[in-house]
């Protein structure tokens, strides 16, 4: 059974998918058997035959050259670009968490290093109906995963990162590291942001990703050590 790392972020559109593509590519290129899995994706576009295209999964599949099939990458794909709980309600396709666990375990069986991407930030409702109330942190906890937090390198990130880490700690979910995205080396505020989030949260910034980066500035063995 493979090792796993859950990628969360300080919010939606922060760059989880972009960073995940580089993480999986880093491991894959170094010879690790690396895979990707996402439980629920919303905001999918339609392909030529009307099929729903899971953009995040396809991006990582392409970037890391995984050659994986869509059903192996994502369990639930919703068209509306809203929180999964709302997309699921409106399309009458609630998430079955037994299926998610089966799909996750199957993915973990296929790969030695499985990177699972979250939806939105860590407080993202996945199912909120008459039968169940499930938030993303419930799923991460149920699967027993450690996390990596993707954050913007710039203004406002101290608040967003420290709140996210404190919430994960309150739920007793391990936090292995932080990745600063949209990074500008030499920027005095961004350098202070990194120092402040490390000191205030006690979690290291393990990588800095610049706009347009095609590879990760992190040793594959050091990255692999974050998986458990
Ligand atoms: N370092 C970067 N360089 C270039 N483009 C980036 C970078 N980081 C993010 N982007 C772009 O910003 C947009 C949002 O990023 P991304 O899709 O990775 O966010 P996300 O956190 O995965 O969002 P979601 O919550 O929808 O899963 C995308 O168009 C992505 O290509
Ligand atoms: Mg994404």
Tally of separate domains: 1
Order of helices and strands: EHEEEHHEHHEEEHEHEHEH
**Which distinct ligands sit in these coordinates?**
adenosine-5'-triphosphate, magnesium ion
Tell me the Rg in angstroms: 17 Å
What shape does the CA trace take? Answer: globular
Detail the poorly predicted runs. none
Question: Per CATH, which architecture?
Answer: 3-Layer(aba) Sandwich
Tell me the strand percentage band. 15-25%
Helix/sheet category: alpha/beta
Average per-residue pLDDT, rounded, comes to 98
CATH superfamily: P-loop containing nucleotide triphosphate hydrolases
Specify the helix fraction band.
Answer: 25-40%
Q: How would you classify the quaternary structure?
A: single chain
Strands side by side in the biggest sheet: 5-2-6-1-9-10-11
């Amino acid at each position: 059974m493979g090792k796993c790392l859950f990628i969360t972020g300080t919010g939606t559109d922060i760059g989880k998918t972009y960073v995940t593509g580089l993480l999986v590519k880093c491991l894959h290129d170094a010879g690790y058997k690396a895979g990707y899995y996402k439980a629920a994706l919303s905001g999918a576009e339609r392909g030529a035959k009307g099929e729903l295209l899971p953009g995040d999964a396809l991006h990582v599949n392409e970037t890391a050259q995984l050659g994986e099939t869509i059903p192996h990458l994502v369990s639930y794909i919703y068209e509306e670009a809203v929180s999964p709980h709302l997309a699921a309600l409106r399309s009458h396709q609630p998430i079955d968490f037994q299926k998610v666990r089966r799909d996750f375990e199957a993915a973990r069986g296929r790969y030695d290093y499985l990177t699972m991407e979250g939806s939105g930030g860590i407080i993202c409702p996945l199912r909120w109906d008459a039968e169940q109330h499930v938030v993303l942190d419930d799923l991460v906890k149920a699967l027993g995963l450690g996390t990596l937090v993707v954050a913007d390198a710039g203004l406002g990130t101290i608040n967003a990162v420290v709140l996210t880490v404190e919430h994960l700690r309150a739920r007793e979910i391990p936090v292995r590291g932080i990745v600063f995205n949209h990074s500008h080396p030499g920027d005095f505020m961004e350098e202070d942001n990194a120092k402040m989030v490390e000191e205030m949260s006690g979690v290291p910034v393990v990588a800095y990703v610049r706009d347009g980066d095609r590879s990760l500035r992190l040793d594959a063995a050091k990255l692999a050590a974050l998986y458990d």
